Amino acid sequence: MSSEVISQLDIDRTRGDFHYPESHAFDAGVGLNHATIDYIANVKSEPDWIREFRHKALDVFLSKPMPTNWASEDLNNIIFEKIRYYLSNAQHPTRSWEEVPDDVKRTFERLGIPEQERKFLAGVEAQFDSEAVYSNMKKALGDQGVIFVGSTEGLKEHPEIFRKWFGKVIPTGDNKFSALNSAVFSGGSFIYVPPGVKLKHPLQAYFRINAENFGQFERTLIIADEGSEVMYMEGCTAPKFETATLHSAVVELVAMKGAKIQYVTVQNWSANVFNLVTKRAIAHEEAEVKWIDCNIGSRLTMKYPGVVLKGRKARGEVLSIALANNGQHQDTGAKMIHAADETTSNIISKSISIGKGRATYRGLVHIPKHLKGCKNNTECDALLINSNSRTDTYPAITVRGSGNSVQHEASVSQVSAEQIFYMQQRGLSEAQAMSLSVNGFVNDLVREFPMEYSVELKRLIDLEMEGSVG
Amino acid sequence: MSLIIKNLHARVVGGQTILNGLNLEIEKGRIHAVMGPNGSGKSTLSKVIAGHPDYEVTAGDILMDGKSILGMEPDARSRAGLFLAFQYPMEIPGVSNANFIRAALSARLAEGEELEATEYYADLYEQMDRLEIPRNFTSRSVNDGFSGGEKKRNEVLQMAMLKPTYAILDETDSGLDIDALKIVSAGVNALRSPDFGALVITHYQRLLDYITPDYVHVLVGGKIVHSGGPELALELESKGYDWIREEMAEPALA
């Protein structure tokens, strides 16, 4: 992109906050009913079983109440009749950036995606509103039998694997938003890693919302076959709009015997996005699933990645960081369902509340009576920056039977005005001082992250702090 | 060139007045000591100069090399060359000393400029050696779990790294045993130069045995009531502050 073009755009310091004028060849219109479902299924030329799956899911969605008996009342401010559920220009992602339409390509170039792909990624999928515009994987991986495609291509081209697991980890009726996603899903990744194949470099998906009053509903299914290893990374941004935007994904992971899946999320939603995501994994015998979840931005995020520890000696881990700035609510946590002997789980959650930002931790650890040798460790730390902040912790730990052990630690600390003054006296601005405190607070956790993402996270924290100082 | 405190009146924001027309000039190349009884305003003076948000200046001015700093944020004052060694240094969990000092130095660079890592560590290690600070200090969190003596050494280390033009040392001697006191004092003395002025605030004469001031001032009731040479500190040590209070009372009666 030439510098001349850049200078014509309204550029905010925040890298994701820009958008180009929209024009969509395919638009399901505003509102949601059975005709919307048919529109989506027709446009995508989907097989009948998926069309039926969608219609049933819509009925489940409509029949379920908003979970405001335990969750935020703010959910009532989502006006489903005003949202657009499907927007795209084409049905097939290209395999090269040259073929991606210019305006869309510019968007991803500004977000640095092609550059990252060249540097350290094994494959990239870039989704723009409802559909992936670009999808590519290193050829060597394809030769080894690795599949990395969009969900539509997955269900059409690889039904024998797709149908076996799709909707099995997270059933349609799991919650209101998993039902919504099941009705209108589009985009997201389908990944299959054959037995024994270990991917050295991560696969990445980037989800970009460009349209106003829009809902993005990607659907991701990752299957790591016996003894294989894969790391998947997702990034998300949207520009700031006046009205609410909805992002409601469903992510299902299946780790077969001895497989390892690492799923990394670094989201940086703008403050108008409702981010309501269901993420869960099944870990078979001796498999390992690790969720690394960094939630920055959004108006309300509700997300509790989980692992069902189904096979003996399976291991699940959730490392999460949530940053709730003024006017934001990060309602996050983790679920660990122990369903076999000698399964272990580890949850480390760090939340930061700034100004009137609110952070909520919800944890569920379940170890039934008949199991032996199960272990869970949960650590929950909250950092408050200024006195209006609010943090809540709702741990729910049910451990029955003997021979299982659970550890739970929680702490709340505060960045005081005196600490900020001390750092300012050394020459750091107020924003830099806050940023340094936050980075210090998450430091021991971030060390566990892949390098590229810890750098990205630090950059996002810096930006967020700059924005929070008046 | 000097740091001039001119007829300074200051109070806790919306509260009690603590400084009542304080005058003091700290020239480059000189070390001034301020002593005074508890509650006389010593720590308030240091915080007001550094721009602590809990205090407001109601009259007077503070000039650094001729320019008023009252409108400047604390960080801008720091970058302009002012350093405060805190009486109670803050802990910053998770932030290593090496990163903290590097961030402070980087904040002084122009946009786009970067600190040269090798040079930075060479300088850091040299200053640490001078203060007899072990190498594993760099990876420890700032003041987190430090003893009183370690915190004070860290203040002097930061000062040596940031190379301020004017430094205020607020009761840097408190909490130090005699060996630590000697090391810290040697660290301050090493900074003495024609381009460095310091204000040493202390409760005890003891510190001034090691950091010999050019001038000693007595602060009572929020203003300087008596000034003299280094011998004044010894006099205060043996006679206490009462004779000064009496001296003050007399001219007021006359």
Assembly form of the protein: heterodimer
Work out the number of β strands of chain B. Answer: 12
CA distance, first residue to last residue of chain B: 37 Å
Please count the beta strands of chain A (DSSP E, at least 2 residues each): 24
Q: Would you kindly provide a brief summary of this structure?
A:
Chain A is an alpha/beta fold and 470 residues long. Helix content of chain A is 26%, strand content 36%. In chain A, strand 3 and strand 4 form a beta hairpin.
Describe the model.
- The complex is a heterodimer of chains A (470) and B (254).
- In chain A, 26% of the residues lie in helices and 36% in strands.
- Chain A has 470 residues and is α/β, with parallel strands linked by helices.
- Chain A has a domain at 12-303.
- Chain B is α/β, with parallel strands linked by helices.
- Chain B contains 8 helices and 12 strands.
- Chain B has helices at residues 42-50, 74-79, 97-106, 117-130, 148-162, 178-191, 231-239, 242-253, and strands at 2-12, 17-27, 31-35, 55-64, 67-68, 82-85, 92-96, 141-142, 166-170, 197-202, 215-220, 223-228.
- In chain B, the strands form 3 sheets. A 6-stranded mixed beta sheet of chain B has the order 6-9-10-3-11-12, sandwiched between helices. Chain B has a 4-stranded antiparallel beta sheet with strand order 2-1-4-5. A two-stranded antiparallel sheet of chain B has the order 7-8.
- In chain B, strand 1 and strand 2 (17-27) form a beta hairpin.
- In chain B, helix 5 runs parallel beside helix 6 (178-191).
- Chain B starts with a strand and ends with a helix.
- Classes of the chains: A alpha/beta (470), B alpha/beta (254).
Structural features:
heterodimer, A: 470 residues, alpha/beta, twelve-stranded mixed β-sheet, ten-stranded mixed β-sheet, 24 strands, 26% helix, globular, B: alpha/beta, Rossmann fold, six-stranded mixed β-sheet, 12 strands, 35% helix, 29% strand
